[in-house]
Amino acid sequence: MAYDVRTRQHYRDELGAIEAAGLFKQERFIHGAQGVEIEVEFPAGQPARPVINLCANNYLGLLSHPDVVAAAHAGLDARGYGMSSVRFICGTQDLHRELEGRLSGFLGTEATLLFPSCMDANAGVFEALFGDADVLIADRLVHASIVDGMRLSKAQLDTFKHSDMAHLEEKLAEHMDKRFRVIVTDGVFSMDGDLAKLDEIVALGDKYDALVFVDDSHATGFIGAGGRGTHEAKGVLGRIDLITTTLGKALGGASGGCVSGRAELIEMCRQRARPYLFSNSVPPVIAAAALRVLDLIEQSTERRDRLEENARYWRRLLGEAGFDVRPGDSPIVPVMLYNARLAQDMARDLFARGIYVVGFFFPVVPKGQARIRTQLSAAHEKRHLDRAIEAFVEVGDEHGVLGLGKQQIVERFGA
User: Fold this and answer.
1) What is the pLDDT of residues 182-204, one digit of tens each?
2) Could you list the active site residues?
3) What does each C-alpha distance from 205 to 75, 149, 171, 180, 359 come to in angstroms?
């Protein structure tokens, strides 16, 4: 069918319906480098204005660290801009091997395989390893990339209620007839900021002879005493069978991801994971910078300590101001608003006051669970957070949400 008037109108109507429902997503344009204080053009065509950034994944503030930038420059000069090939043809440098070895040592695993992104890792791992004789049992709030990856596998799919260990145990007992049972979870849940109960999950895995898969993208580099991730924080280092994570957040903030874990599983991914086999290699410049990031993380806890303090301080400020804040121990601090349009309107009004945040709503989060997700960085200073809370209080008061819980917000604004 040609792309005719009828076809064009169909998609215009679809887009109009998305906008009418308050679900339309608008991009903001950053002028200059990413960071804590940035200049952003929004809406498109308006002059860029200075804002405090409270919605980036720059948890350790390392994306602009001079040592990381210098390492990237050195990698670019010595190794070139890209590989123009997939890994198994002529796209693997010794630099890739070095980074995979360093990541294995840092994460406490047997082997690691780099992917262009963690989304690619999640898209490749399940299809490569599991088939119709197996079952994948996932927490109901796992990241969308995990959901998409599981759908590519022929394994049976099942779920358990979020962080409900009794329900998980029921599911494991139900699937004892399967060849492999695989428990699938995030380490830190990206929209809520809570940590998976990995100690209990691993114990259930042992009891029911199940493998454990964890996407630790929002934990690697800063959660746990050594920054190794949720498995370190929960005391199960070395006991997770498969970990996927990213270089695009705390580990430099550019792009790239990996799967890490049992040596045989990683080698199977090297042989069969389609996003690995058919995507260009991680650029050498990113690998070089990531190696320097690992050096910095292993040398000092200063940035992790500052991040933890910032998260505690910000969470306390929001709670004392009367916002409905999800409890948690991570630098992801969601302000719950439950209504998509309200989340967008408040994010817009905060931007007008120099605070850059984004409203999240369906399909990024379940219907009726709209929120503004704030994210802390080690690069934030107390003055940034004090200025941000002033704006949040002003906007929250204007919209009449201060001191309201879920039921009251839903009654006033709808879900």
Assistant:
1) 999 999 999 999 999 999 999 99
2) 190, 218, 249
3) 41, 21, 12, 11, 36
